[in-house]
Amino acid sequence: MYMGRIGFWLILLGTLLLALPVAAQTGAPGEAHPCLPGMPNYELATEVRLSGTVVQLLELTSPLGSKGLHFLFRPLDGSPAIEVHVAPLRYVRQEGFVFSVGDALEVLGSRVRCDRNLAILAREIKRGTSTLVLRDEKGFPLWGSPRRHS
Fold first, then answer.
1. In this model, does residue 41 exceed pLDDT 60?
2. Cis peptide upstream of residue 37 (ω within 30 degrees of 0)
3. What do you get for the CA distance between the two ends of the chain, in Å?
4. Are 136 and 148 in contact (CB under 8 A)?
5. Given pLDDT bands bounded at 50, 70 and 90, which one contains residue 21?
6. Is the model more confident about 120 or about 114?
């Protein structure tokens, strides 16, 4: 009986360890976030403003189970498509924003390296006359603190 329990736990542990690399891949809704742990910080020195189009929406799940919204963005300047890290999905919904493939946007954010790829941590996203503010002027996320108005 004692060896049976040890064998069960060893098989369970081995299965979980083998499943971790699979869970860390990105792309489809609900898949794991590629940068966690070690999410890059927002850097004002690398801030850029890009205009372009959403080509793919991504809902990624953190190891703690929260869902984050990202999208693949094709800048109008002809540079390669880049992944934009938006915010937790619940925050975007709370703010009343819905994104769709084909949306023409202006993204203000920090250019960072994430999993050896360039990405943008969004601070503001404009669509037409509407602006979704995600971070304060220093780059700190608004979803983790009481709502601040400027």
1. yes
2. yes
3. 65
4. yes
5. very low
6. 120
What is the mean predicted confidence (pLDDT) over 54-61?
95
* Model pTM above 0.70: yes
**Which of 104-108's residues contact partners 24+ apart within 8 Å by CB, and which partners?**
104/51, 104/52, 104/53, 105/51, 105/52, 105/53, 105/54, 105/73, 106/49, 106/50, 106/51, 107/49, 107/50, 107/51, 107/52, 107/73, 108/47, 108/48, 108/49
By the 8 A CB rule, do 103 and 127 touch?
yes
> If you search the block for the tokens 């094709």, which residue do you land on?
74
Query: What is the rounded CA–CA span in Å between residue 7 and residue 90?
Result: 41
* H helices, E strands: number in the chain: 2, 7
